[in-house]
Each structure stands twice: as structure tokens, then as C-alpha cells.
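Practice problem: predict the structure.
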Amino acid sequence: MIQGLCHICGKPAMHVCSICGNAACDEHYVANLRACTKCASKGRDRKREIPDELTPKRFRV
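Answer:
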């Protein structure tokens, strides 16, 4: 079920970020964190570890 448009790229989104509540497409969603890549890259959920292999290279520090 489409949840709207991805807040990062504008493509149809199938997920909702559990941190910010915005819609996210498959490309911009980290399933095991239930978060969009924007929130995952900012470390907005400090209780979860974000493995490098799940964070897109452009967001790595």
C-alpha cells in the first residue's frame, strides 16, 4: 500500500519512518531500524546502533 511520496526523492513510498513520521521509498528506508535514511544518518534514535553497511555511503561520516 502506497503511503504517499517519499520526502527525500518524491517517488511513491511504501514505508513510514518511525522517527520522523515521513513517508519513504524502498531506496530511502532502513527496514531493520524502521527509519528513513535521513533520520538514520543523523543518529536521531540514539538507542539503536546504525551499522555502516545499512547507511548509504553519502551519509557516512
